[in-house]
Amino acid sequence: MNDLPEYIHEQLTGIPFNLFNLISDYIEINIDTKVAFVGGFIRDLLIAKFHKNTFPKPIDIDLVIEGSSLSLAKFIKTNISNVEICLIKEFDLYNTVELNINDLKIDIAAARKEIYNFPGLNPVVTKATIEEDLKRRDFTINAIAYEVSTKKIYDLYDGITHIKKKKLYLLHKNSIRDDPSRLIRCAKYASRLNFNIAKSSLTQSQQTVCKWPWKSYQSKGRKVFPPAISIRLRMELSEIYRFDNLSNIISILDEWKIISILNKNIQVNDKFLRGLNWIKKLEGNYMLFLLKNAEDFENTFQRFFINHKEQKIIEDYLDISKILETKKDVYLNFSPSNWTEFIENRNLNEDTVKLLICDGGIFWRPFFRWLFIYRFIKSNKDGEILKKQGWEPGKEMGKEIERLRYLEIDKSRKN
User: Fold this and answer.
1) Of the four listed, 59, 87, 122, 195, which is most buried by Cβ atoms within 10 Å?
2) 86 phi-psi bin (left φ>0, alpha ψ -120 to 50, beta other)
3) Which sequence spans correspond to the domains of the chain?
4) Long-range CB contacts (< 8 A, 24+ apart) of 196-202?
């Protein structure tokens, strides 16, 4: 344990762009200011040390400051050298700053306390110390900080021990109630880090999810769901979709019996997981795939900020699924041109077609072929050729071009 500060110090001095020394210089000038590295980067350094894991170079670093986050960001930008891009984005709500230096993102947050007056709402924020700031973190393994000037490690919740044991502990008894997206993040860490959730934290998760969904509240005479829930859940899922194995994480949520945080009707089986993998391959809307069989769509749409375009995609998907189910014998005999007419006359969105493909079943192939083949096939004669052959521009010519196109589409099945 005694060598940990030196180990962390050595690793931090290797961060690109001389960042560690710039922070040290800022502290020397602003002697009453404390700055600490916190969160995932410190966690991963400790995992690397204790479990001999290797991690790629950091692309995201979190700092907490007892002082002005914007002042530190401006100092770094003014004094940094040999970089192509250095951008500052300020977020007034929490007094945080995002500093982008080439491909490295640095989040600088003023130390703060958070109080949740209603489950899922954004918290009320007040200034705090670094120690107090750690209380608002999600898991003990992310509540470890390293203060730059004193080389002190803050580990108030035994996060280092939990890293050694590869265990995920929620920080306090209201963690999930305050922010349900922590469930998704917990499954992400279990998958990414190969950690197991602690029994007490799993119990809290399961007991809290039993009360899900949180009740709406009245605002200006209308029913509103806590917006922070929707935003955070979608942000977590979006990050997972881009960087992690979504199928594995959904399977973990199901194994933990907390899948209802998304949709209690999800049946995690081979068919579902195959569809989830396909929705990513097709670059489809994974959120709609997860919600397509939810109950009470009106509340589900509100809860997850599903916009009008996305609602129409799900509604069309449900309508087409019902049509196909009731007339299977008819559609089993459809030709490629029949399927093209069926899809295009209904003006189906590509994401609706992708949902139908990922559903599997007996009709996924024609939808797949339309998406990648049929819709790109054109008539072998355009309007100019038909005019030379005596056709008059108008409705009849359009029908002839369509007929010729359908002939070409039907030929595609034979080729």
Assistant:
1) 195
2) beta
3) 1-165, 171-262, 266-272+281-334+343-374, 377-415
4) 196/166, 196/167, 196/168, 197/167, 197/168, 197/256, 198/162, 198/167, 198/168, 198/169, 198/170, 200/169, 200/170, 201/168, 201/169, 201/170, 202/256
Write out the two tokens for 127. Answer: 């200034």
Tens of pLDDT, residue by residue, the chain (415 residues): 569 999 999 999 999 999 999 999 999 999 989 999 999 999 999 999 999 877 767 679 999 999 999 999 999 999 998 888 899 999 876 789 999 999 899 999 999 998 877 666 677 888 999 999 999 999 999 999 999 999 999 999 999 999 999 999 999 998 988 888 899 999 999 999 999 999 999 999 999 999 877 666 666 666 666 666 778 888 899 999 988 999 999 999 999 999 999 999 999 999 999 999 999 999 999 999 999 999 888 888 887 889 999 999 999 999 999 999 999 999 999 999 999 999 999 999 999 999 999 999 899 999 999 999 999 999 999 889 999 998 989 999 989 999 999 999 999 876 5
Which pTM was predicted? 0.87
Distance CA 149, CA 36 (A): 9
Residue 387: which region, alpha, beta or left (left: phi > 0; alpha: psi -120 to 50)?
A: alpha
